Amino acid sequence: MTRTASSTGRTALYGILALAAVVAVALFAPTQGYYLNIMMQAATYAIAVAGVVIVLGYCGQLALCQAAFLGLGAYCVALGTVDYGLPFFVALALGVVVTSIGGIFLGLATLRLGGHYLAMVTIGFQMIVTMVLTNWISFTRGPDGISGVERPVLGPIDLSGGSSYLALCLAFLVGVTFYAAGLKASRLGRAMQAVRDNEIAASTCGINVFRTKTVAFGISAALGGLGGGLFAGAFSYISPDQFTFNESIVLLTMALLGGVQSPVGALLGTILLVLLPEWLRFLRQAYLAVYGAAVIAIMIFLPRGVWGLVADRFFKAAPIEGGPVTPLPLLSRKGEASKEIVLDISGLAKHFGGLKALDGVDMAVRKGSVHALIGPNGSGKTTMVNVITGLYVATAGRVKLLGRDVTALAPHERAKLGMCRTYQNIRVFRGLTVLENVTIGAERDGNDVAGAQATRERALAALDFVGLRDVAGLPVGDLPYGHQRYVEIARALAGSPEILLLDEPAAGLNLTEKGEMAALLKRLKGHGLTIVIIDHDMKLIEQVADHITVLNFGKRIADGEPRAVLAHPEVIAAYLGEPRNEAA
Ligand SMILES: Nc1ncnc2c1ncn2[C@@H]1O[C@H](COP(=O)(O)OP(=O)(O)OP(=O)(O)O)[C@@H](O)[C@H]1O
C-alpha cells in the first residue's frame, strides 16, 4: 500500500514538473527559427517513437514502418485542413483513427507471421504507403507535397504561434509518455511483455496472444499518426520523402538508442538523435561517418540504451513490502478426492506425419486427486499435456474439462476455464520481475479475483505459498533454476486452477531441491488440488500419486491405482526395456 501511495506521489510530481515545462516553453521558447524547428521535430518524432516502444519494446514485434504511420497522420492533417477545410483537431483525430485502423490491419498479419517474415510485411507496408503518397498525384499532390498547413486556434487560445504550438506538441508528448509508462505497468502492458518474452507460456496463462499483438500494433500506429499530424502543423509543409523507409529506421534507432523498453528512454533517444547531427555539423564531410560510428558505439556499449544506464544508476526498484498475506483461497477449498471427473479424455490422438505420438489415449482425472502420467522417454507424455492445454491440435479424440468439450478451444480459452500448467523446459517471462510473472497468472480471465490490489495480493499469496515472497521484486532471471520452477508453479496457483498440469516439475533439480519439490507437491495434494503430474522420478510419483496412467509409444498400457500399476509387467518391461512377458 505504502509503495503504491509513494509511486502515485512520484507520478504526480513528475506530472507537475512536466506541466511546468510545457508552460515555460509556451512563455519563453523562441517563436520562430532554427531552434524552434529542432524542438518541434524532437517533440513530434518522440510521440511516434513512443509507438515503437509499445510495439517493439513491450510486445516484441519488429515493425519497420513507423514513418508510414507518421506520414499517414501528417497527410490526414494536411489534406484535411488544406483541401477539405476540416478543423485542425478533427483532422488530427481522423489521422489517429486512420493510422490505428492501419495498425490493427497490420497486426492481423501476426496471426500467421512472426519474426523476420512479419518484419518483411511491415517493410512492404512502408513501401506501399510511400508509393501511394508519391504517385497518387491527384489526391496527395505527389512529390511536390502539400504546403500551407495551418495551426489550430481554439476559440480565444491561439496555438498558431511558434512557442504556443510547440507547447501543444509538448503537452501531447507528456500525455503520451505518461500513457506509455502507465501502460507498461497495466494488465495490458504486462500481457504485451509476456507475449514478448514467451508466447507459448503467455497463451497458457490465458493471454490472447493474437489480440494482444494486434492491440499493440494499433496503439503504436495511432501514436505514429498523432506524431505525424502534429508534425504537419509544425512545419506547415510535408512531402512523401519525409516519411520513407529511411525515416522508419531513424525512428527505430531513436527507440533502441534511448532504451526500447522505456518511454522516457525513447524520449532521450529521440532528443539525442535529433541533436547529434546538429552537434556534428561542424565536421562537414566526415559528419555522417562520425554520426554512424557514435550510434554504433552507443548500441554496442549500452545494449539497453542510454536510459538503461541512467535507470541502473539512479532509479532502483523499490523493494516489495513485507507484511501479512491472505492465504490462497483455492487452498481453503479442502477438496477431498471425489468421484467427479475434472478432466475427461477419450480416444486422444496426435500424429506428426507418420509418427503416432499419441494413439487413442483415454484418461479420466478425478477431482482432488493427483494423477500421474508416466512412461519412458518419447512415449508421448508432453505431447499429451500439449494437446490437453491446446498447444497442439488433436488429430482425433476429445478433451472435456468439467464436462465441457474444450477440444476445439485455443490455449487461452482453456486457461480461462481453469486449466493451468507448468513446463518441462521452464517458461518464465524473463523481462519481468518474480511478482509480475505471478501477477500475470493471477490476472487470467475467469479467475476469482477483481481489482489491481486484490490481484497483487493474490500473486503475493502464491509466492508466499512456494516460499519466494522475499524475492518478489527481483528480475526472475536472477533466481536459480530451481526457484524459477517455483515461480512457474506460483504463477499457475495464482490463477486458482481447476486443474494444474505439471510437466516434470523435478526435472533438472538437485537432490535437495527434489526433496523440497516433493514437499511442496504433498502440501498441494493436502489442499485437495486436482493435479496431473508427469515425472520420471518414481519415488516422487509413489509419494504423491493417487492414480497413474502409463504411456508407451503413444498408447496407454496401464491405468489405475499406483501399487498395481507399478507392479504391472508391461510397465516394468517398458521401463526396464525387458521383453514383454505375455503370460504374465
Ligand atoms: N512438435 C513435434 N513435432 C514432431 N514430433 C514431435 C513433436 N513433439 C513431440 N514429437 C515426437 O513425439 C514423440 C513423443 O514425444 P514427447 O515429448 O511427448 O515424449 P515424452 O514422453 O514427453 O518424452 P520425455 O519423457 O523425454 O519428455 C517423440 O517421438 C517426439 O519426437
From TrEMBL:
Compartment annotation: Cell membrane
SMART domains registered for this protein in UniProt: AAA
UniProt GO molecular function: ATP binding; ATP hydrolysis activity; L-isoleucine transmembrane transporter activity; L-phenylalanine transmembrane transporter activity; L-valine transmembrane transporter activity
GO BP, one annotated term: D-alanine transmembrane transport
Gene Ontology CC: plasma membrane
Domain of life: Bacteria
Signal peptide (from-to): none
Keyword Lyase: no
InterPro entries: AAA+_ATPase, ABC_AA/LPS_Transport, ABC_transp_permease, ABC_transporter-like_ATP-bd, BCA_ABC_TP_C, LivM-like, P-loop_NTPase
Transmembrane segments: 12-29, 35-56, 63-82, 88-111, 118-139, 159-182, 215-238, 250-276, 288-310
Keywords of this entry: ATP-binding, Cell membrane, Membrane, Nucleotide-binding, Transmembrane, Transmembrane helix, Transport
Topology term for the membrane: Multi-pass membrane protein
Pfam families: ABC_tran (PF00005), BCA_ABC_TP_C (PF12399), BPD_transp_2 (PF02653)
Residues of the ABC transporter domain: 343-578
Broad class of the protein's primary localization: membrane
Protein name: ABC transporter related protein
Lineage: Bacteria, Pseudomonadati, Pseudomonadota, Alphaproteobacteria, Hyphomicrobiales
